[in-house]
Amino acid sequence: MAVDYAVIFLYLAGMLAMGWWGMRRARSKSDFLVAGRRLGPFLYSGTMAAIVLGGASTIGGVGLGYKHGLSGAWMVLTIGFGLLALSLFFSARISRLKVYTVSEMLDLRYGGRAGLITGLVMWAYTLMLAVTSTIAYATIFDVLFDVPRTLAIVLGGGIVVAYSTLGGMWSITLSDMVQFVVKTIGVLLLLLPIAVVKAGGFGALRDELPTGYFEPLGIGGETIFTYVLIYTFGMLIGQDIWQRVFTARDDRTARWGGTVAGTYCLVYAIAGAVIGTAAKVMYPNLASADDAFAAIVTHELPVGVRGLVLAAALAAVMSTSSGALIACATVANNDIWSRLRAAARGGEPAPAGGAHDEVRGNRLFILIMGAAVIVIAIALNDVVQALTVAYNLLVGGLLIPILGGLLWKRGTVQGALTSVAVGGLTVSALMWHYGILADQPIYYGLLASLAAYVFVSLLTPPTDPAVLATWRERLAGRGAPESAHAPAEEAEAGPGAYAEAHPGTGDGR
């Protein structure tokens, strides 16, 4: 295992190096939170694919393939469909708004009164997403080093918190690109063909397994529909996803770079299902389907390759974890803490602070949220239930107000706030009644949220025409505050090209 350990330690050291590199480029709030809004297509596509394909998509995707066969791909497929829909239909408008959070978009659309309550819902979602990603370290490090669960969570979570705190979105972007490459090599180019060959080829898979393993809808139509509601719609509105859209240098990058990432997700989904199906042939009696990934990696891969594939699994978890962490900290600072401070001052503007102070404040919030995530991950055991709660609250509470704001000009702030409250409470009550993993909470929660939004919006006065005029200006890419804009000319090759074109910035060389 010495070679495998060396591969893993080299990878982890590289992540910390990316944090240090990003720290030297995070000179402003825009740099720290959205990478200066200057990512070109290559960086944007890789980092977007990295954040949406986490431990659930990798280890969980293989587990679903083990349990259901090729139809086990549906969970990750719906993630890809959501990213494609976001990129093709909404990303250009989202990018032009030049905001930092989803709640800022809602404030802009509805007139400044929707931010705090939506910020609380989004914060709960991003926090639980970060927690569930952090819990996954326990599985990976157990396979690697046979270490206790708590130590594994502290080790993996500590590394993510360290590089995220140091450089913010620049560090996360660069580390995600490394993780994207490692996942592509480890899962698609190595584990997939090795698993199929070790299982005896595709012919052996058909001979050994029931025909249900090869039916496209074998997992069940109701399950697929639930995946669409939770994951496809979740991709449209999550702060962790939107914050990556904000990093795009222009509309074209956001639209087509995201389309490439969404297409990559579809390929990754099928690969995970095929790997899980092959594992079912080789290990038909595993105690848990989620053990399929660890079993095939541990017993079937040669030395060195095993380390790289485990690094790929670690990369999948880290990319989602770091993206959720910075999203959680951004919402906590910008949508909750800043608003509470403003309320305490009686609405008076905050004292002026420099770019360094803004970066330091956001860096502090990443550190605080990261520590909280690690503590909660140690105390929590059930990843699936925690993730289901997070997505149910997100989709049930925020989907209708966000999409309504983008698509229906008659929607009002009263309708939006009522929709958030009714949808969130309905989902919470039905999860308590039917069980967290039941399908009914998200079905009825969305219907209740939609009814409340439309009904209350029609009963209340339309949004102030001045607010809508400002909203349309921002959607068209005009009227954004100057501080929101960042240089974009040299973004194609990432921060290096920008530093070369602007001597005295970046790493000082």
Q: What does this protein structure show overall?
A:
By secondary structure, this protein is mostly helical. 76% of the residues lie in helices and 0% in strands. It is built from 20 helices and no strands. The chain has helices at 2-23, 29-34, 41-52, 55-68, 74-96, 102-110, 115-145, 149-198, 202-208, 221-237, 239-245, 251-282, 292-300, 305-344, 355-379, 383-407, 413-434, 440-459, 465-475, 495-501. Helix 1 packs parallel to helix 14 and helix 11 packs across helix 14 (305-344). The longest helix has 50 residues, at 149-198. The chain is globular and about 65 Å long. This is Sodium:solute symporter.
Largest sheet: none
What overall geometry do the principal axes of the alpha carbons give?
globular
Mean pLDDT over the residues: 84
The SSE string, one letter per element, is HHHHHHHHHHHHHHHHHHHH
N- and C-termini, Cα separation: 40 Å
Outline:
The protein has 509 residues and is mainly α.
Fold topology:
Blueprint: H1 2-23, H2 29-34, H3 41-52, H4 55-68, H5 74-96, H6 102-110, H7 115-145, H8 149-198, H9 202-208, H10 221-237, H11 239-245, H12 251-282, H13 292-300, H14 305-344, H15 355-379, H16 383-407, H17 413-434, H18 440-459, H19 465-475, H20 495-501
Helix pairs in contact: 1-8, 1-14, 3-8, 3-11, 3-12, 3-14, 4-12, 4-14, 5-10, 5-12, 6-7, 6-16, 7-8, 7-14, 7-15, 7-16, 8-12, 8-14, 8-15, 10-16, 11-14, 12-13, 14-15, 16-17, 16-18, 17-18
Protein name: Sodium:solute symporter
Organism: Streptomyces fungicidicus
